[in-house]
Amino acid sequence: MTMRDYVIMTDSCCDMTAEMAEELGLAVLPLSLQMGEATYRNWLDGREIGFGDFYARIRSGETATTSAISVGDFEAAMRPILQSGKDILCISFSSALSTTYQSAVIAAEELRGEFPEAKVLTVDSLCASLGQGLLAYLCAREKQAGKTLEEVHAFAEGTKGRVCHWFTVDDLNHLKRGGRISAATALFGTMLAIKPVMHVDDGGHLTAVGKARGRKASLLALVDHMAESAVDPAGQTVFISHGDCEADARFVADEITRRLGVKTIHINFVGPVIGNHSGPGTVALFFIGTSR
Fold first, then answer.
1. If I label 227, which of 66, 114, 269, 292 is the partner at 20 to 30 A Cα–Cα?
2. Which candidate, 269, 128, 132, places its Cα nearest to that of 198?
3. What distance in Å separates the CA atoms of residue 217 and residue 118, rounded to the nearest whole number?
4. How many Cβ atoms from other residues are within 10 Å of residue 217's Cβ?
């Protein structure tokens, strides 16, 4: 019996470049955001709203609301794949931050009834931004190495809790607006130039774990966390995402290269859906560690 081929599917909160997603053979569904009167889908190539344009509008004081992927959108994307005789592994944005994973689960359940011979497996990545991107990247590499759908699914479940997310933001008011921190914390932090050092915990939630005085100290704190917990830093692929502040992302990249011997680093924007909550000036570092 020949093994059925399968497609790895994820969503645009993976924040990887469109080129990388294409090279890896990933199917990527967009989340959406509403700004003013318009609704934009967050495609990886920025075709409906460019990354620079989005951050310029946020800096000018515009606000946006974001929407998860619906069950119907998942079904519409999954059905043609299943009709072509392929199975699906769907790796979704953290269920603690979005209902996208729930939509994927419901769509998968519906389609299993329609295609009883097919397999549609779902993974709650408990990751965000290029943390989710890193998990999808590693799973795609496993697939390229000839691993079966079930093997890659098991790999995803076994690896996701070790995808470390360390990030800092430049302006606390975006996190305050999204209800991630209190108004008092935002006010005092802004007055004292305190920059939070945050991570995504084992349950996929954003949590503050430290503070740094000033921007440079907060960026170096990300590197310190990687030095503490990264597994074989020189041998792994590291991802960095940023809220339209590439120079700061490059500073972090240079530091991890210098201190930890990291050779392969991919840098890209925090997309509009996550960037709407984290704001301009976010820098996030993702790597595989002993634990989160």
1. 269
2. 128
3. 51
4. 16
